[in-house]
Amino acid sequence: MKSTSDQGERENGRGRASRRTFLRGVGVTMALPWLESVPALGASSVAGAAAPCPKRFAALFMGCGVNPTQWWAKGSGAAMELGRCLEPLAPLKTKINVINGLFNKQATGVGIHPGQTGNILSGAALQKGAELKGGISVDQMLARHLGEATVQPSMVLGCEQPITGYHETNFSMAYSSHISWQSATSPVPMEVYPSLAFDSLFDNRGTRRNQSVLDRVRDEASGLSRRVSAADRAKLDEYLTSVREVERRVVPMRSEKDQAEGRAANQGKPLVTMPRPDNGLPEDIREHMRLMCDLIALGFQTDKTRIATLLLCRDISGLFYPFLDVRAAHHGASHDDKSEAYERVTRYYVSQLAYLATRLDAMPEGEGTVLDNTCLLFTNSLWSGTRHDASKVPVVLAGGLGGSLATGRTLDYADKGDDNRKLCSMYLSIMDRMDVKLDRFGDADARLTDL
Fold first, then answer.
1. H/E stretch holding 249
2. For the segment 218-248, what is each residue's pLDDT rounded down to a tens digit?
3. Judging by DSSP bridges, how do beta strands 395-398 and 96-100 pair with one another?
4. Cα–Cα 20 to 30 A to 424, which of 5, 183, 192, 266?
């Protein structure tokens, strides 16, 4: 069996052609990263010109606001100064933009929580009552236009189960639980189990799911390693080592999920209603979040997907942080958002962005890194959880989208007027740089100036 360079090949019968190389085994398909010495990967549509590296977008979401007193940045480049909440990003100062003052107009004046969260990536007005109605989110708009280029149009992950029912404001709690929406009425199903996200990434299926995916492609990997350049061989070895490490951490989680499904069946309860860790989710959320970041990194590195969202915690989150010496659950802690405890919580979430960005920045691609060809968005539906204040929201961007997005800047739109500080204007600007040109998105028909 030979490794398959599938330029022009049809993947999964859906007509999605990939420029990447795949290793295949029994019940598994492993996409590989950009390798300069494999001709198909450097193929171009214009003779003599190398094809550009793909551009990617991911949104990371934290609910219930940040510590507003320690969320600040000033200056530019390596000399940029960061508040304590943003300190995890210090090594990445030249590759980030910290943006102040943007807001989501349709999330103001609607009451607290669900109505402030369900449209964070769409800017659409949300409907109260039993019928869901909002708008398509920016990630899914990108997937709609760019998804044909990859096997997996988008990756939608979460670290906390969605909740059901209605809030006192009469908005569905579905708005609190989902940031990715494929249409005005349908959230994208969110994968919260690392084992299932791993299986989807590697097309791991059948009776051999519990066998190592690397063991099943070992012969192909060895054959490819002998044919590529020394630099590509090192890159391939590093990638396979990363996959092995992720797989090692995922394997026990697969059995924990299977056991949880058995418990739920015995108790006659839906799995989604069971508390962590009875529901099979990792009890240590640090491991859970890192794994989800690792899976996005692998998906981007291999061009399996170019679009992702990660709900680190939902609105009205019930996550606990004993490792941060924080006694209250997330939502309760956010009601004292200027405290040192919530500062630690905020900084912890920013560290997830820093972790993913650092992973991507360590992956060579073309003349730069995967991060250089990516835009990572970190945001929150609120500025202050104490006051449920959505008059502005925290925003950090990481990555330069193939040089089309300048980085190393602090940008302030707080005094620019409401028409000039819309989140959706930023989304239009990002989509432009990814060659998705729209006249309007959400509540905006103009691009964000100076971005």
1. helix 230-267
2. 999 999 999 899 989 999 999 999 999 999 9
3. antiparallel
4. 192
| 280-283-286-290 Cα dihedral, nearest 10 degrees | -10
CA dihedral 231, 234, 239, 243 (to 10 degrees): 160
**Residue given tokens 């090949």 in the structure block:** 9
- What does the DSSP 8-state code read for residue 128? P
Integer Cα distance of 285 and 410 in angstroms: 31
Contact 190, 138 (CB under 8 A): no
Complete DSSP assignment for 332-376: HHHTTTTSHHHHHHHHHHHHHHHHHHHHHHTSEETTEETGGGEEE
313: Cβ contacts below 8 Å, ≥ 6 apart: 61, 62, 63, 64, 159, 160, 319, 330, 349
**Helix (H) / strand (E) containing 74:** strand 73-74
In the numeric block, which tokens belong to residue 59? 């949104």
Instruction: Report how far residue 76's alpha carbon sits from residue 296's, in angstroms, rounded to the nearest whole number.
Output: 28
Global pTM value: 0.93
323 close to 344: Cβ distance less than 8 angstroms: no
**Which among 62, 169, 66 has a CA at the least distance from the CA of 386?**
66
Cβ-based burial of 207 (10 A; exposed 0-12, middle 13-18, buried ≥19): exposed
Q: Which two tokens stand for residue 23?
A: 């290793």
Neighbouring C-beta atoms of residue 331, cutoff 10 Å: 18
Residues 360, 399 contacting (CB under 8 angstroms): yes
Count, residues in the chain: 451
**In whole angstroms, what is the distance from residue 43 CA to residue 28 CA?**
25
pLDDT band at 20 (very low <50, low <70, confident <90, very high): low
Chain position carrying tokens 């990997």: 221
DSSP string, 182-208: SSSS-BPPPB--HHHHHHHHTT--STT
**Hey, is 290 helix, strand or coil?**
helix
- 239 vs 248: CA distance, rounded Å: 14
pLDDT digits (tens, 9 = 90+) for 307-335: 999 999 999 999 999 999 999 999 999 99
C-alpha span between 435 and 375 (Å, rounded): 13
